[in-house]
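Lay summary. Proteins are chains of building blocks that fold into shapes, and those shapes determine what they do. In this project we predict the shape from the chain. Here is one chain we studied, written as its sequence of building blocks.
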Amino acid sequence: MTDGATHTALHIPDAPTARPAFAPQRVAFFSDAESERNGAGSYYSDLIAQLTPRLAEAAIFQPGSHRRRLGSLSLPLPGDPTQRLLTPDVPRLWKRIRRMQPDVIVSVTPGPFGLLGLAMARHLGCGFVTAFHTEFEALSRLYWNPVSRGIAGGYLTTMNRLLCRNSAEVLVHSSRLVPTVRALGAPSVRVMGTPLPASFIDTPITAEARPLRQLVFAGRLAPEKNLEAVVAAARALPELRFVIAGDGPLRRQIERETADLSNVDMVGWLDRDALRKLLDASDLLLLPSKLETFGSIALEAMARGRPAVVAETAGIHSWHALRDGLVSLRNGEDLADAIRRLQVQCPEARRVRALRARDAARALNDETLTQWLDLVADCQR
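And here is the predicted shape, written in a compact code that computers can read:
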């Protein structure tokens, strides 16, 4: 695509056409996150793939690996040059969205693409929804100096408030975020589930009763992920193999810190199929993040019948039905100690628990699809 839009459904007609009231809905998503490069990017790739058969059309407009037009702006995100902030080709996208004539527009981020979604919703008079995935203001405290943080924080708060106040609904993926978006002016808030990649659900799993052998971290190699805890655990538990998958601003630092550890493999960024195979080959997922709005990778591990050690502050813990597949890393607890707690457990008991976790993850996926279909229908009433 040449305009930053990834379409996943029906052909867009040459001009708007009248549709009867009972026609299936068309939904357009606007996101500044590249597909599958972070949690928000993966969320909508997975969601749209499953929503497409149930809607007239679902499309996402976001930065992509397309050739940028002359004069477009591309800036590295502060603290993470592996991700970039891109400006959309507004005239081209405006033309395409007018042809699509969406019933509902969902803005996922407070950047240029997300704000364009709000402008288009106002112009077309369609339903508008904001999804609040990331506590950007909290992240700014990890990346930026006080001056930059003040500027960035002011912008993010202003843009998030603009999006929230103009939304019929604001969506969060953890009940812990409800007070945050209400303070931003959200008139109505829904706590939404998280979808899974279809292959994580449909591909058969192996669930053996065996001792822990291989542990995996998968995600952005960034300050909020608390990778120092993973490195410390690898030093403390040389009998276990640790695999670190992902890319980000800390990659070279982690490579230096693990150069002398024979039990650590760094495999870089993986596509979803390769990630699924890595989870299948591992016995436990590690997610000791300092800041984690939800923790989608933990849900993906559960879907593959693998338990996850997750920081107790992560939003996924607020979903009670998922607790059977989660091992809470308590505040101040060493990751190595949490792993040792699992090492002494009966392998068969871990296997049974992992199978229940898979069932819970699949149930949440089904519930999430229902929630989204209900949301789209409600925006039309």
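What the prediction tells us: Confidence is low (pLDDT under 50) at residues 1-22, 65-71.
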